[in-house]
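Much of what follows relies on a compact textual record of a protein's fold. Each token is a code from a learned vocabulary of local backbone shapes. The record below shows the convention in full.
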Amino acid sequence: MKLLSQLRTSSFQLALLYMVVFATSVFLLLAFIYWRTAGFMTAQTDETIEAEIAGLAEQYRGSGINGLISIIRERVARDPNAKSIYLLTTDDFVKLAGNIENWPKGSRSDSGWINFTLNPSVGWNGPERLARARIFEVQGGLRLLVGRDVDELTNLKRVIETAINWGMGITLALALLGGFLMSRSTTRRIEVINITSRRIMNGHLSLRIPTRGTDDDFDQLAENLNQMLDRIVYLMEGIRHVSDSIAHDLRTPLTRLRNQLENTLMSVDNDEAREQAGKAVAEADQLLATFNALLRIARLETRGNTADMKQVSLADLVSDACELYEALAEDKEQQFEQSLEDHVVIEGDRDLLFQMVSNLIDNAIKYTPEQGEIRVNVRKEGNDAIFEVGDSGIGIPDDEKDQVFQRFYRVGKSRSLPGNGLGLSLVSAVAEIHQGVISLSDHHPGEEYPGLMVTIRLPAYSPNRKRLKDTQSIPASEVGEQSSPGELRGA
């Protein structure tokens, strides 16, 4: 799998393109060398044959046919290895002189050149060899063939062709290996940037992309990205500090205002005044719940993982939360079902996990109509612990499922219900601390009330599993009370 991913990288594809260009250049160069070398040797052979023909023609002009026969016999006697091929015949192919017996059959060009094989069919007694000759007619109806044994030349061409093929193969193999090594080196640098970037996107904003100190392109890119991250973190911290300060500073006067309104509510006798004071107290409670939720989310996102990580039985924790909310479900005549597998253990902060689970169960009950159904599941799949809350409520449209994790985002269907749009942000922050993954889906797809299935996948505890490091403790006093009903569903 890793090799396939390596082959898909742009650096390997660029190296492959370079390999193709380089191999093509090498092939053209070797082809040119072969063409020039083979052409030169063939031309040299043809020139040798032409020289022999010229000598025979001069002998024929000086001594006639008898002189031509004599010189052919003399040359055959001087060449026992038969490097030169001669055959002089009459018009009806009767041999007069030469070192082959029969007229050869082969492809003959318009200029009189013929390529053939020396074998028994031409009266050749030696091993089979390749030959090239030229044919022309002599006055008096005689036929003359003069040629050369080109078997060594042909073998040399084959050696050159084999060398070229091997050279191309070795060139391609070396180019491929070099491209792979170059791509691997580049991919490693890019993978370091990708891994660090993914960890930064998952909330580890203190991380930075490492450099090698070579001041190459990758180091310059890493330095620029690190400077950009420093600037982003600086701006985020500034915004977060301002929002936290506003929430913290306003919470105290709002608390005083709420207490004063409650005292007024208890002291007035007029029913209308008591009703107005009660509404004011409720509005103040809603504002305080919003500010408390903002502060809790800010603390979770800023401090990250908690150091108070202990083994927690997820089934027991969920069972306690269900026991707390069963009465609320009974008041709405809802069917409250539980399927909790034992021995599902995770490593985490029990208080934060209980808050996350309670928020989800409370929210499911709130957004499910009377006589609806609520289903809570705990099970183990491989190395993961699964917690699910399903309901038959109004659900969340598919195009809004990814947006409900944003702060203050509320689904259109739930805007008329109480809430501040911070529920899923808080649940997401707690899940992220515990390296969990949240997914949303319809519990009853296609129905009028599709409901919502919230699935949280958490790493199951294992003695060999690496514990979370670089963590800070979040005191229980800073976690605050559980979110009020309606804080979750993009509410």
